[in-house]
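Nitroreductase family protein
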Amino acid sequence: MALIDALKWRYATKKMNGQAVPQEKVDYILEAAKLAPSSSGLQPYKIFVITNKELKDKLRAVSFDQSQVTDASHVLVWAAWDGYSLEKISAVFDRTIAERGIPADAMDEYKQRLWGMYEPLGQEWHANHAAKQAYISFGVAIAAAAEQEVDATPMEGFIPAEVDKLLGLNELGLKSVLVLPLGYRDHENDWLVNMKKVRTPQEDFITEIK
């Protein structure tokens, strides 16, 4: 399916039917999410893929009882770094250097300049910046799911501190940012399934400056 057609097809599915999504489709979506751009290529987030029924039940309880969490085939949780550090940045750059086969000190100047900008901004700024990078990956995953004709429900409607506890994120230096249930729409019981997609008109949405 062409991307624009896929995006016209997709909607924030309100009721899923419990049907399993083939693993190859899930893998495709996750690969797309991994390939998403991020600031300085740091990818300051991880994705947790949940299929365990007991854990999905617990997640639903802290997600305002949204049924998609338990009716989905897979629930994806984006968890962003709770802060930057020179060690974390260095680890990413070291991997880049090794993969590209370039001199060990090739990125030292850029690394020090980057950390020099980030360090004084404080942990709250760090966490917000990392979360913004997760949103980019999240958007790419939604588009990839639509391309695969897999339904998805973008969610911010959950209690982050409780999700962090359930997944043990605090110990990993992570904070839950976004949740994406993947599955298939329940045509009989989803009130939104046949509703017209509404977006801002082009003339109000786009401003051309020539």
